[in-house]
Structure formats: C-alpha cells, structure tokens
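Hi all, long-time lurker, first post. I run a small reading group and we've been trying to get comfortable going from sequence to structure in the token notation. Rather than ask abstract questions, I figured I'd post a concrete chain and ask someone more experienced to write out its structure so we can walk through it together at our next meeting. Sequence below, copied exactly:
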Amino acid sequence: MQSDVRKKIIDAFSNAFGSFVSGQEIADYVGCSRTAVWKHIEELRNEGYVLEAIRNKGYRIISAPGNVTSNEIQIGLQTTAFGQNIHYEESVDSTQKIANRLANEDAAEGTIVIAEEQTLGKGRLSRNWHSPKFTGIWMSLILRPNIPFHEAPQLTLLAAVAVAQAIEDVTELTPEIKWPNDLLIKGKKVTGILTELQAESDRIHSVIIGIGVNVNQKLSDFPKELQDIATSLFIESGVSISRAALIQQILRNMEKLYHTYLQHGFSPVKLLWESYAVSLGKELKATTVNETIIGKALGITDSGVLLLEDKTGKVHPIYSADITIPRK
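-- Answer (accepted) --
Happy to help. Here is the structure in token form:
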C-alpha cells in the first residue's frame, strides 16, 4: 500500500484532469512542504511517469508507464470506493487467492487486487486462465453486498455488463456475453469472470469477483491450443490499449451498476445483460454435473438463471453449466 502522502498527491493530479497543479496547491492539499512534494514528483518520474513542469504554473502528467500500479490506476480514477484501495503485485499465483485473504482481514469494499502476471490464474470449473506478464488485466474486486445468499450469482452478470461497457467505452469494439461470464469478440473469448463467496449460513461476508481481460496479447502470446478460441483487444482492433484506462472504466462502470443494483434490484442489470447476450434465441448445449441438455436459449430469469427449451418443449432452468454452441 502506498503512503497517504503519495495517495493525496495522486488525488490532486486526478482532480486536475490533465491541467497544471502548482506545487503550493499540492502542498496545501496534502498537508506537507513543497520540498516533500518535489521529492514525490521525482519518485513518480523514477517510476516512468513523464511530468511537465512550468514555472508559475506547476506540474501536470504527460504520460504514464505501461504498468498497472496503484499510481497509474488512481490518477484519473472517477470512483468513490472501487479501486481507492489497491493491492498491487508484479507476479502472483492468483489474485483471487490474495483477495480472499484480504477479505478475511476486513479489507474495505471496493478494494482490488491486481497483478501484471498470474502463474496459477483460474477460471470457472477449475480451468486454468492464461495470464502472461504485462499484457492483460488480472484483477479481483472485493464486494460486501447486503443481499440474500441465492442472489449472489447476479453479480457475475453485473460484472460482465460493466466490462462489456468499458470495452466499448475505451475501444471501438462491441463484445458479446455468453452466459454467464464470458465476453466474446467474433466468437472468441476475450474476458472471463469468476465469482467466489465467503459466507456463513445466514449472510454473505464478501463476494470476490475475478476479472481477466486479454488486452494487448499478440496471437503468438497464446498457447497453440488457445489460438483458435481466444483473442485480445489488440488482435481485434489493431491498436495497443491502455490497461490502466480500461481498468478505470471497468471500476467506474462496476461502481455505478452496483449502486443501481443495490437500490433497484436486478431488473435494470438484466436488461443491459440481454442487450449484449450472444446466446439468446440460439441452440445451446449445457453440460452440468449430472446431465447434458440441448435446447433453445429463451433468456434469463429475474434471478439470472438461464432458461433452455428442449425439443419436447420442456424448459430447463440452468443454474451452473459449461455452455457451448453445438456444431451443425
């Protein structure tokens, strides 16, 4: 965790939205000397930030390094809670593992764990998630919603909408959502979302939402077995994307949708989710622990449960399954 002084300096730059901030204004805002401000400015430069300094005008940030450290995420971050506390590591086995530990230690809601690389990243159904260094977003967010236990899966759908919106906001790409948690571009997976609970018998202690986004990978960065089914924002757009900017937009969208959800329930999120859904009206194969069901996707319930209608007309509620589109 960065020092309180550094965090306040970053806040000062964030509030300026790219304009100059004088050394005295920063010193007054932070509550330290101008000499201390200068030392922190030099530390930012040492971390790879390019800052412009003009006499009688002050400082402004011209560019930031390409990493996703706390500084880069918080400069320009427009949230009140999400991302205001950041646990950053260059390399971890899994951000989910660290986030679960921090949640047990009473980390504040909105705390994120983010890494440049995961060595044991995981997706749904205990699958591995390929997380190469400095290329994607590997992040976990801690939530503490006061909702019934059975409604927690709705937060997976909420996160999928927030990430889809963020990709649209930052790039010219429009992803599609495959129930419940995959984002696709041209049929290839670009994002996965994993939701885990810490709960007692009568209440949710925390919800940990893991988000993995393939951002700047080239095709050669994927193992051969993934090259036909996975893609990245760079591959699809031909443009290198600022991971910090995308993280900021994800957090902003997540916070806004989360507050809407807590105030008005799942219905507004459901409408947004359906607007991105790739599977509605299509024939899908749902492989559950006990059976395989093939049927037409009718939509999702107000609880986020997928409804499949088989050839006999029977409607099956799908709570958890591996979803694929059968080949004709």
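A couple of things your group might point at:
The chain has a mean pLDDT of 89.
Residues 50 and 63 are 5 Å apart (CA to CA).
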